[in-house]
Amino acid sequence: MNPSRPLWLVTLADLALLLVGFFVLLQVRGDHRALAQALHARFGDPASAEEAIPLAAERVAGFATGSATLPADPAQLRRWAAEQFRDPRVVLTVTGTVDGSAGDVDPLTRSGVLLAADRARAVAATIAPLSPSRVRVATATDPHAAMARAVTVTLGFAGERTSS
Q: Where, by residue number, does the polypeptide cross the bilayer (predicted)?
């Protein structure tokens, strides 16, 4: 680097080139999906392209402390899920939670995360037969949420489905 040029000038030039590149991307004509996939493959986490955008949720509450037994008949949840699965772009994420107390844990392993997973699996087992490839299972511990001994089923938009 030439000592007569200030260092900030190099940074400014880099910033200007990044800005030009950004505007070129904005002006690209053609297949935007292919461009997005190429950018995700090169710079992003490939799994993030598959994440669903959450839109709505149903909640199964009332689990007993330390139990993964469904608190009520899941027929209402099955009807709701069947209605949502009519749209091929929908993915349902089933998230089990515990309340964070010492008693709300799996009785054998003393693990709250395992109990949350068991709750989520119990609910997922009731809706997964409707469309197994579009049900995801997750866990969370939320000691501050009201009625945290629950399972939340989140409806998400995962984008257009293409046959591959």
A: 6-26
Find the length of the chain.
164
Question: Which residues, 6+ apart, have CB-to-CB distance to 79 below 8 Å?
Answer: none
Minimal CA–CA distance to 94: which of 111, 79, 77? 77
User: ∠112-115-117 over CA atoms, to 5°?
Assistant: 110
**How does pLDDT run across 32-57, given as a tens digit for each residue?**
677 777 777 777 654 544 566 778 88
DSSP secondary structure code for residue 49 in this structure: G
Q: Is 94 exposed, middle or buried (0-12, 13-18, 19+ CB in 10 A)?
A: buried
pLDDT in tens, 83-136: 999 988 888 999 998 888 888 888 899 998 899 899 999 999 999 999 888 898
What's the CA gap between 156 and 50, in Å, rounded?
11
